[in-house]
Design goal:
By secondary structure, this protein is α+β, with helices and mostly antiparallel strands. About 45% of the residues lie in helices and about 25% in strands. The strands form 3 sheets. The chain has a 5-stranded antiparallel beta sheet. Helix 7 packs antiparallel against helix 10.
Length: about 250
Amino acid sequence: MPVTATVREAHAAARPDTEHLCRLLAHVPLLEGFEPPELARFARGVREQNVERGAVLFHRGDPCHGFHLVLCGQIKLAFTSAEGQEKVIEIMRPGQSFGEAVMFMEKPYFVMAQALTDSRLLHIAKSVVFEEMDRDPTFCRRIIAGLSQRLHHLIADVETYSLLSGRERIVGYLLREEESSGEPGLCGRVSIRLPTSKGTIASRLNLTQEHFSRILHELAEAGLIVVEGRTIHIPDIERLRTTGARY
């Protein structure tokens, strides 16, 4: 599917609305503390993009001219083979950004990015990023902190794939989803809505979809979870935590 058919620039036919972009940028953690004139200066290099579900934002090998910030929706970053096989590297959610590393290296993208849901993003041109880094040491530190956190997560992923069983990976994933939901359960009972398909999550955890489904079935047989489509009910979250620590 052509990218241009499903990735729409919000201001393609008119001059970008600086005031509108500034309102969006004011909620970006990376720009926390920026005054209105600074946001307006930064907005010169920002484009708002509306991406339909299934649209490819960029392919591996495409040139990188900046980085993206997710406002709403989900973006999948993945490797793909000539045979159509796919390995999901990350699922980006609102508030998360991607593309900074290749932007600084001035290299083409080495993964593809595809919208898992209808999504809205900001594309921030590298020219305004470099200008702001020259001007503001605090902004530099935030950029470095974000890249360092990404590296930490990458190392944690390698540890997970190398040392943890499939069951441990899935239990750990469910526990992280429960923690990030911020919704307290009743008497230890919680429900988690999987953010995307089981196949995508399985690939993210370096498992086949069959292996992923088999482990969910085993956890359900043990009374640790109840599966209803993409909703996972956990009758006793502490018991699941104990199980995850034991295997």
